[in-house]
Amino acid sequence: MAQTFDVIIVGGGVVGCMTARYLSRYQLSTLLIEKDADVGMGASSANSAIVHAGYDPLPGTLKAEMNVKANGMWDTLAGELGFPFERRGDYVVAVGEEERKSLDQLLDQGTQNGVPGMHFISADEMRRREPNINPDVSGALWAPTGGICDPFAVTIAAAENAIQNGVTVMVDTAFEDFIMEGHRVVGVKTNRGDFLSRWVVNCAGINADMVMHKANLHPEFKITPRRGEYFVLDRAEITINNVLFPCPTEKGKGILVTTTLHGNTILGPNASRQDGRDARPLTREGMDEVWQGAAKLVPTLQQKYVIAGFAGLRATGNAPCRTPGINYSGDFMIEIPAEVQGLVNLGGIESPGLTSAPAIALRVVELLEDAGEKLKPRKDWNPIRPPRPHFRELSREDQIKLINSDAAYGRIICRCEMVTEGEILAELRSLLPARTYDALKRRTWLGTGRCLGSFDMPRVVDIMSRELGVSPLEITKKGNDSNFLFRMTKAVEE
Q1: What b/e string do you get for 228-248 counting C-beta neighbours within 10 Å, with b at 16 or more?
Q2: pLDDT exceeds 80 at position 248
Q3: Is the pLDDT of residue 493 over 60?
Q4: From 63's CA, which of 95, 304, 319, 323 has a CA 20 to 30 Å away?
Q5: Start-end of CATH 1.10.10 domains in the chain
Q6: What mean pLDDT is predicted for residues 134-159?
Q7: Is the pLDDT of residue 10 over 70?
Q8: Is 262 a catalytic residue?
Q9: What is the mean pLDDT of the chain?
Q10: Has residue 280 got a pLDDT over 80?
Q11: pLDDT band at 251 (very low <50, low <70, confident <90, very high)
Q12: What percent of the chain has pLDDT over 90?
């Protein structure tokens, strides 16, 4: 007999995990399914890590509403869920007088959207604040409510807090179809069997259109993936102090230059349409475009400091804005459709999707209540997810205390990032345990320094093999067929 839940969430990105977390406040049995080996492996793991202020979305759109509402939630969320977040603010930088004029429109949009504290910065003041900025800067728009986060940590923290509060999370569980009774969704078919429910929430990100089409819903809605490519620079190359955006174009917010919470500089993304939904290749043309765009803002950048590149896909959809009089066809879709009962349907959740995730999750809760769902708060709901220690961030005194409490924290496995065996073991034993090398990387930041895991990988595979009780041959980089090792090179005598 198929297992039954009140709510099933399809997709374990940041929106799906935030939705699971907010639903866990109520007396509901909730299941979250994710097709990959870990949560947050789609757009949630390949983005700019920016918490946007909200001046970029067109006024009157769901993007604008969700962005600004969610922006104000991030300080509380970071405190409750124990993930790093810094409200650094951000600049939109104009180079030349023509671009300077375009800042007026962004200020007007931000004012209409309710973004607080925005104001112009003169060219001289901008050069003082960012000495490495393009000397031809003509001014900038300053938005103090912008911030930066670790999107991996956000997604994992939300999922773990949901699990703390009774949500079931199943990875390696791919949605295949809906179970229907007439025009009502009553469950889902997966590669791991069928599951029944009173509600299903479509949080499938890049595949959200294919999911809703399985219910014969919105055949006109289509996601056209847009690839964005990035450079990551070594911490030795710190050329800026804050988040720098160019003036936006029809393609999006443009190629930014920003520092990360981990001390690196990140450049990107560009924006190019892609037919496939799985392949995320880096291209020479794309990387040249990224470098040229970044160099327009910060000409002193040096390619010798590049330590990594990556690409992500954005779920660019064609949903029209539902506000009368707003001619915009790339809005968020957040609805309970009249045509299909038992389904909360999300689509086109691209930037500012990361920023908007908590507000989108709350909107899902509101839609369920509006649909007549009697949501009863749990008296024992715990919003706090205790953070785990990161050895490199501790004072010397606290490091010694930690080692004295557990000797594993005294064994450095990743030297570039100062990640200890104790941190690795903690993640292998957590509520949402890491089961792949990349899952450990996202949680601890091992393998992200200059050597990119060249030295730590064999030791990490050994620890995972020992802790998980499997052969080293079974350890993968990111699940499926991404094994590190394929055979033993020598026979070992017992």
Answers
A1: bbbbbbbbebebbebbbbbbe
A2: yes
A3: no
A4: 95
A5: 391-474
A6: 97
A7: yes
A8: no
A9: 95
A10: no
A11: low
A12: 89
Token pair for 27: 């007396």
Fold of 391-474: Arc Repressor Mutant, subunit A (1.10.10)
pTM as predicted = 0.96
What architecture (CATH level 2) is domain 3-44+152-220+317-370? 3-Layer(bba) Sandwich (3.50)
Q: Out of 184-188, 266-270, 446-450, which region has the weakest mean confidence (pLDDT)?
A: 446-450
Position 491 pLDDT exceeds 80: no
Indicate which residue of 52, 119, 262, 390 is catalytic. 52
- Lookup: tokens for 487: 């055979």
- Look at the domain 90-144+224-314 and name its fold: D-Amino Acid Oxidase; Chain A, domain 2 (3.30.9)
Q: Where in the chain is the domain with CATH 3.30.9.10?
A: 90-144+224-314
Whole-number pLDDT of residue 218: 98
pLDDT of residue 492: 56
Residues of the chain with CATH 3.50.50.60: 3-44+152-220+317-370
